[in-house]
Design goal:
It contains ten helices and ten strands. By secondary structure, it is α+β, with helices and mostly antiparallel strands. The chain has a single domain, classed as Cytochrome p450 (Orthogonal Bundle), CATH 1.10.630. The strands form three sheets. A five-stranded mixed sheet has the order 1-2-8-5-3. It has a three-stranded antiparallel sheet with strand order 4-10-9. Strand 1 and strand 2 form a beta hairpin. Helix 4 crosses helix 7 and helix 5 packs across helix 8.
Length: 348
């Protein structure tokens, strides 16, 4: 199995159930230990022996080697994204976002049904529709605009790709420019007296939410429709939690030596924790663990589930049967599970 592309390979539906009884293994291609057993993944997520991947340090090193392009916007973003910092910086970043989300929660929750209704309403009167570009992407971006209090929806393209270690230099520069444009939009919203912290929190929400939500919802809907080809959308029993995730794995770095299931890990080792294992586990209760655990648990979990609930309720009002005409996952994405196309026909 090609681990690099496992998250977007349909063979994962057979791989993960089999991995439930398989040991942790080292993959030379990604130079990391791969944890694909749900029980091992759970243990790794809460392990005190691990640190997050040093994204900021990697970009600081690249900036030193290439002074002409110092990635100022990516380095700024990394200071405010909890999964990019450790220790006290991590606790501070989580607290900042948690407080901001709590303050905006009622506004975002009350807006969610209205946002969903507007975009799902695009299906009315259509015989064909491409769900990613016409429904899910704009729906998620509008929701993030409400949550963040900043309309940067027209600027977001690849913001979430900051976590991709396999980007080319050109792509990194383009992404830094995109983040700069989003920061400028945020600054226009908060004004010259707004703090750097206000700017950083809002930028982090766009980075964390865009591909994770749209990708997870799109892939989940695709699998739901595939499983119910003969049913009208109004008669489908939609899952309470998305049955796929846009975030297929997280990576950690070993901070201090430890052992798990006979494998000895040394400081500096990279570990890829396959979150998708929770979705293919034989234990249904594992699904909720895809949102992480412990100090790295997803701060947007409740709002994500509220948006999913509103989305599936809106779909359940559509009496037509959805037939998938064309579907593909992004084949150049090494971080997210994200449909590049989900074209459906709406049949009586």
């Amino acid at each position: 199995m090609n681990v690099i592309a496992l998250h977007r390979n349909e063979a994962r539906s057979a791989f993960f159930p089999a991995a439930a009884t398989q040991p942790i293994f080292f993959d030379a291609t990604i130079k990391a230990w791969v944890v694909a057993n749900a029980r091992h993944c759970e243990a790794m997520l809460v392990s005190p022996h691990l640190s997050v991947s040093p994204y900021r340090l990697a970009y600081e090193d690249m900036a030193k080697r290439n002074p002409d392009f110092a990635f100022p916007n990516m380095l700024f973003a990394f200071r405010y994204i909890p999964m990019c910092v450790n220790g006290e910086e991590h606790r501070l970043a989580r607290r900042r976002i948690a407080e901001f989300v709590a303050a905006r929660k009622n506004i975002a929750s009350s807006a969610a049904p209205r946002i969903v209704e507007r975009w799902v309403g695009k299906l009315t009167g259509r015989t064909e529709i491409e769900l990613m570009t016409e429904v899910l992407q704009p729906m998620v971006r509008e929701f993030l605009a409400i949550l963040s209090g900043t309309d940067a929806s027209g600027l977001i393209q690849g913001a979430s790709a900051v976590f991709d270690r396999m980007m080319s230099a050109r792509q990194r520069r383009q992404l830094d420019d995109e983040l700069g444009a989003i920061r400028a939009a945020i600054r226009r919203t908060i004004g010259p007296d707004g703090s750097e912290e206000e700017e950083g929190i809002r930028l982090a929400l766009f980075v964390l939410g865009n591909d994770a939500l749209a990708g997870g919802f799109g892939e989940s809907l695709c699998q739901v429709l595939r499983a119910n080809p003969q049913l009208p959308m109004s008669e489908i029993d939609y899952p309470a939690l998305p049955n796929e995730t846009g975030i297929p794995f997280v990576e950690r770095i070993v901070r201090e030596p430890f052992e798990l299931d006979g494998v000895a890990f040394r400081p500096g080792d990279r570990i890829r924790i396959m979150l998708q294992s929770f979705l293919y586990s034989g234990d249904v209760s594992d699904r909720a663990r895809v949102f992480g655990a412990g100090i790295h648990a997803c701060l947007g979990r409740q709002l994500s589930l509220e948006l999913w609930s509103a989305f599936t309720k809106a779909l359940a009002q559509i009496p037509a049967r959805a037939e998938i005409l064309d579907y593909a996952l992004r084949d150049d994405d090494y971080v997210f599970t994200y449909p590049s196309k989900l074209l459906i026909a709406l049949n009586p």
